[in-house]
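Shape is hard to put into words, and the shape of a protein is harder than most. The fold becomes a row of whole numbers, each drawn from a learned catalogue of backbone shapes. The outcome of that step, for a single protein, is printed below.
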Amino acid sequence: MAIWKALSECEREFTDLVIVVDTEQLTPPCGTCRQIIWEYCKDAKITLANLKGQSEEVDIRTLLPKAFDARFLKESHK
């Protein structure tokens, strides 16, 4: 939700994303969020954290291997 709000306010420069949850396990972003992160926050540092003080840095390229983007939309001119 925070990314959508930032985009709606014309923000396009993201350097750090932190996902904090009240769970036992660290929770990665859902599939839809991963795609949005890929498209708009590709180079941002992503930190997963919980309220128990655990944290881990992850990379969107690891969370979303073989990501879909504009490269696949180019028309063939044969």
Observations:
- The longest helix spans residues 31-40.
- The mean pLDDT is 92.
- The chain is about 25% helix and 20% strand.
